[in-house]
Design brief:
This protein is 36% helix and 19% strand. With 598 residues, it is α/β, with parallel strands linked by helices.
Length: 598
């Protein structure tokens, strides 16, 4: 039955059918609600929650409702107080409710696919936890799906429900493990019209960098790099310093065939001199991700408790939650506070001593906000001695005070603090992959023991050393980046008065689309890709973005103009009343889906 089954968000013309089917099932069939003379069943969340619909041609088959956390209320609030169910306040859960299928279609795959669609929709909006009310007589079905009772039973009319919950990562993994074969079979036959891919990424993490797919990951169509605007990644718009280009061009054959210094000794010495740090406090790696995986793998276990900023750089959640399996809490940053870290609130949260590690990306990616070093020093000083702090300063050069705002000096002496700094983004060396961390010498030595020989390639070492020797060039590039960012933000603000454009201190801006009838961030991203302009949908990173915010990297003047033109065309195409394309999120092939199941 999967053939030609369509899955989509509800259109206004679907609502009367939804209300009529709800009445037939929950009033007439189950007796949960009193019959209504009009034969329609509505509730107070209609118009705010999201309905996903299964249909076949003009025949509507079933629906499921999702209540996102940004509404601030749930259907469960009618039955339980927040004291009785505190997770509604703590975990930003998405509520899945009223999975309903027309009687003649109940033995088909419609209901499971609606549940799967709800899970994919939630994951695409940064959801981490699901809550639901499942009918008691169907409890086995919900348990088989991976949901677990919280110990609360609710009665409504003649129907009793169990309150259930589950983690999105665990539910997704379990679904792919148990039903991967079925999903692979259905992948090419389901008419998937939702704004996220049918299948999650192979490791469940949205790493970004889709623009390279357009260029060609097999490197056979590299001419496309001149056509694609890669504003979805935060690579520098400017070239590396002249000395870097000279070092790479001097003898590329030698650099390609020659093994680098075993321990990157020259690079370490150059970093120490440039940053006024002892060599003993340093460790290098092939980019920040290498250092993150190596350090966290040494320090953390599934029993560790970690605090992340939310929103925050997605790799930290990926490593701590998906790779290591830590218990992870979020420190919520608020749009109404300008996404800034409140040091008083952070200090109060950390004071409990329950965290083994606190991660602060400063300036924050993806918000672009910078927390003053003095404030962070005070929070760290007041924190328990058993709490380690990881400060990611990948974008610190864009701060006006520059390296004066670094906590590297503190990290070199305080065993609780580690600073990680990439040489990729700030120095236009993303393709080289080079980064370093600063830690108290004992901590740094332990990490160096777990560093393999030749950790950074010879071309990367040559490039990084040359870059560090030309600070004046990069200061000029960073200053020019601020000018380009302001120009880009101003041009984007002129596109639509309902669009909110936010600037931070780094090399990107964020654009938030209007709620209600406006397009989702995913649809804007898909529409811009048709112009070879690639933006980053921030929705999977955090529910704080409500599925409406994209991040746009600053490029040069010409590419920024293309970004603005693509956004203008996309917004015109996606305005309410414009006929949508059949699908903005193509269904992957079965082979692609198979990769995600393995």
């Amino acid at each position: 039955m999967g053939c030609d089954l369509q899955l989509r968000t509800a259109a206004p013309e679907d609502l009367e059918w939804i209300h009529e089917l709800r009445h037939r099932v929950y009033a007439e069939e189950l007796g949960q609600h009193a019959p209504d003379p009009a034969g329609l069943l509505r509730d107070g969340l209609d118009g705010e929650n999201v309905y996903l619909v299964a249909a076949r041609g003009a025949t509507r088959i079933g629906f499921v409702s999702v209540t996102p956390p940004w509404l601030g209320r749930y259907s469960l609030d009618k039955y339980l107080s927040r004291d009785e169910l505190p997770s509604l306040d703590e975990d930003d859960p998405f509520e899945v409710r009223i999975l309903t299928v027309e009687p003649r279609w109940r033995s088909t795959v419609a209901a499971p696919l609606l549940m799967y669609a709800a899970l994919r929709w939630i994951a695409s909006r940064g959801g981490r936890r699901v809550v639901a009310m499942g009918r008691t007589e169907l409890l086995d079905m919900y348990l088989a799906a991976g949901l677990r009772p919280v110990g609360r039973t609710v009665r409504s009319g003649a129907v009793s429900f169990e309150v259930l919950t589950g983690g999105v990562v665990e539910l997704t993994r379990g679904t792919l493990e148990r039903h991967g074969a079925t999903l692979r079979r259905l992948a090419d036959s389901v008419d998937w019209r939702l704004d996220m891919p049918f299948a999650p990424g192979p490791d469940g993490c949205e790493h970004g960098g889709a623009s390279f797919t357009a260029i060609g990951t097999d490197f056979r169509s590299l001419h496309r790099r001149q056509q694609v605007v890669a504003a979805d990644v935060l690579d520098a718009w400017f070239p590396p310093a002249p000395g870097v280009r000279a070092a790479l061009a001097q003898d590329p054959e030698w650099a390609a065939r020659t093994s680098p210094p075993t321990g990157a000794e020259g690079l370490l010495a150059e970093i120490a001199a440039a940053r006024a740090l002892p060599v003993a406090a340093l460790a290098v790696g092939t980019g920040s991700s290498d250092l993150i995986f190596r350090a966290f793998g040494q320090w953390l276990t599934p029993d560790s408790r970690v605090l992340l900023m939310d929103p925050g750089y997605g790799e930290y959640a990926h490593v701590t939650e998906r790779v290591i399996g830590c218990r992870v809490d979020r420190f919520r940053l608020r749009r109404e506070d300008g996404w800034r870290i409140d040091p008083v609130r952070l200090s109060a949260v950390v004071r409990s001593g329950r965290y083994d590690l606190v991660v602060v990306v400063n300036p924050n990616n993806p918000t672009g906000r910078h927390a003053p070093a003095a404030q962070l020093r005070e929070v760290i000083a007041a924190a328990p001695s058993g709490t380690r702090w990881w400060i990611d300063e990948a974008y610190l050069g864009y701060v006006d005070a520059g390296l004066e705002e670094s906590l590297a000096g503190l990290a070199a002496t305080d065993p609780r603090v580690v600073v990680c700094s990439s040489l990729s983004k700030m120095y236009a060396l993303s393709g080289m992959r080079a980064a370093y961390l600063v830690a108290e010498p004992g901590t740094a030595a332990r990490l160096r023991r777990w560093t393999p020989p030749w950790p950074v390639s010879l071309p990367a070492q040559l490039a990084a050393v040359a870059a560090l020797r030309d600070p004046a060039y990069y200061r000029d590039c960073w200053a020019r980046t601020h000018e380009l960012r302001r120009q880009l933000a101003a041009a984007l603000r002129e596109l639509d008065a309902s669009v909110v454009v936010e600037e931070g201190v780094a090399n990107f801006v964020s654009v938030t689309l209007p709620p209600d009838e406006g397009p989702s961030a995913a649809r804007l991203v898909a529409a811009c890709r048709r112009h070879d302009v690639y933006l980053r949908d921030l929705s999977p990173l955090s529910p704080r973005y409500e599925g409406r915010t994209v991040r746009i990297a600053v490029r040069d003047t010409a590419e920024n103009a293309r970004i603005v033109a693509a956004c203008r065309a996309a917004l015109d195409e996606l305005r309410p009343g414009t006929k949508p394309l059949e699908s903005l999120a193509p269904v992957p092939s079965p082979s692609r889906l198979a990769e995600s199941v393995q």
